Each structure stands twice: as C-alpha cells, then as structure tokens.
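Hi support team,

I submitted a single chain yesterday and got back a structure, but I'm not sure I'm reading the token output correctly. Could someone confirm the output below corresponds to the sequence I sent? I've pasted both exactly as they appear in my results page.

Thanks,
R.
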Amino acid sequence: MPLEPFKTSEPLTLGVELELQLVSLSNLDLIDASPDMLDLLNRRHFPGNVVPEITESMIEVSTDIHTGHAGLVEQLRLIRDSLVAAGDMLNVGMCGGGTHPFQQWSERKIFSKPRFKEVSLLYGYLAKQFTIFGQHVHVGCASGDDALLLLHSLSRYVPHFIALSASSPFVQRKDTLFQSSRLNSVFAFPLSGRAPFALQWSDFEGGYFARMEHTGIVKSMKDFYWDIRPKPEFGTIELRVCDTPLTVERAAALAAYLQALCRWLLERSEPAPTEDDYLVYNYNRFQACRFGLDGTVVHPKTYETLSLREDILATLRRLQPHAEALGGVPALEHLYDTTHQGSDASYLRRQYEERGSSEGMVDSAIRCFRESGVQQGSS
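Hi R., thanks for writing in. Yes, this is the structure output for that exact sequence:
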C-alpha cells in the first residue's frame, strides 16, 4: 500500500522504546517468559506501553510523548519499578545491555505473532539471532521535509550515540573486543544500514519508497532496519543505533541529547547534508562500535580525523544553550560523566574481571536496572 502521509507532530517531542532482557533468577540465562510477563502486566496498571518482541526472552516498553527530560526520566523510572515488581512475582530478572553474554540463540522461541512468524520464515536463523536489545528514540517533526533534514544531518552524530550507549561487549561467553557488538547482528539484515539520500518528502515517498514497494520487497517502513528511519504515521524520526543502557537514567539522557541536537540542527546554521557525507559513514560507525569512546572518526565535511571522545565533549558544550531551553541540562551532565568515566560496556568488562564469570556480569546488570544511579568507572 502507498506510504502514509507524514503526520505533523509537535517539533522536538520525545518518545523512548527499550528492548529488555528477561532473565531467570535461578541461572541468569535468558528465559522464555514474555507471555507470562505480558499477561501479568496487562492485568494491572502499567505507566507506559509494553509489547512482545520477536523472541520470548524479550519485551519492549515505550513511554508516552514527552516535551523534556524531567517528565521522560520520571516515567521511565515508574516503568522500571513496575517491571521489577512484576518480575519478582515470576522469579524473572529484568535488565538492559545490548546482548546477553552467554545465551544460545538456537534455544530461543519465536513469539506467536503473525509478523514475527513471517520474519522468521523470511530470515531463518537470523530471526532468533535477533535476540539483541536496543533503545529507540522518536523525535517529533513538523513535516516530512524536516524529518529528512534531521535524519541526514544526524548521520554525522550516529557514532556519538553508539559510543555513549555501548553495552554489548560479550557474545556466547566471549569478549568480542567490540564496545557494541549488537549492531553486527543488525548489519546482517539486507534492509539495514543508512536511509537513501533525499531531502524532500515528496521525493522519498513518490520516488524511493514507491519503487521499493513496486518490487514487492517492502510493504511499510517497518521493513526497513535503518539506523535512523522516518515514521510518517507518528510524525517522527526514529534513532535506532543505541544499545539498551543498563539504567533508565542513561536512556533518558541519550534521548534528551538527541532532542537538543535536533533543536540545534533545525536552526540550519550548519551546512546542509549531502550524499558525500556518507563517504565516511560506515568507517565512523565501525570505529564507534569497535572502540567506543576511544574511537576516532572522520568529519564528513572537512575530512579531519577527530577523537570521538573529544568530539562528543565539544558537541555537549555547543548544545548547552539548547539543553537549557529544553530543560535537559541534567542529561548533558550525565553524558559528560559518561564520556569521562566510561560506557556500560566498560562497566560490564570490569564486572567480568571482578566477579570472574559471565553470570556475574548479568547479575550486575540486573542490579543496575533495579537500582537508580550511575555505575561507571574508567574506560
């Protein structure tokens, strides 16, 4: 069917989605508990929305629409508290982290939902390997043209969000040497990566999407697994590169950082994005996944090589007036600390060294989700 018209939204409004791990408190492995968890949560008041994900060891929670950081973090804390209470009733732990460090993908069960079954039939074993966990952030846009401007302007900052959210260093009990290994699983899908370059919604809708629909490959925007994608039915762009952080406080801080960044980009004081900006996109994204805050990136306009950590710090300083206008200064302060002290991936590696096992890492991740606060240290 044709692409829905782009719904006008209040600019810079925020919504957050978190994919969360369901963990057995007996052996700390993933557990196929989402049917029971969803049944329990649907029978009581839940301060957001909760839906199944592709395998039964995952759920996705989402917030309402928010205008700023304070309301967003407050609701995320209420969601967390409700999840923890429900999990305690089922002997199920809840945690963030982009990957579970020792689960076996072949043991996962596809959730009984028509779309998930279709995806499983199409992608085979990749569907079960998609038991990975990300944070998605929606930002409201006044028009489809604004959405595309933000989408392509943000390409330069995608490594920031990968590095700041990185929390997937282990897979199958092995240290991958990546800060975010989760995105390697996403890259396996043929419709992943970056969106095609277009700055006019009419060109995207009547050109690219119409041609793709004509091929029979796609039916809706849900069929694209792009790093950032427009969501016309919501009137938003959706950033999809973040690992799920270990705390809801970090999730809220990342969303507020994106909000401030979009406010600045909508001033159009920076040079307009071009197709050539993507010459360095895959390299920069790899650097962020592999090395996190210690990576280097190439500026897409000047081709200058930059320290990713210093680039993030410079951007945080530049965005200070925008954060003040939006009420997001605490979020930027949180990310200043993260940039200096290290990511969740660094924390999980330290937990592995200190506790001596992958199970110890998972136990620490459950504790982080349950308890407020920042758990970082040096990277």
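A quick pointer for reading it: Residues 373-379 have pLDDT under 50 and may be disordered. Let us know if anything else looks off.

Best,
Support desk
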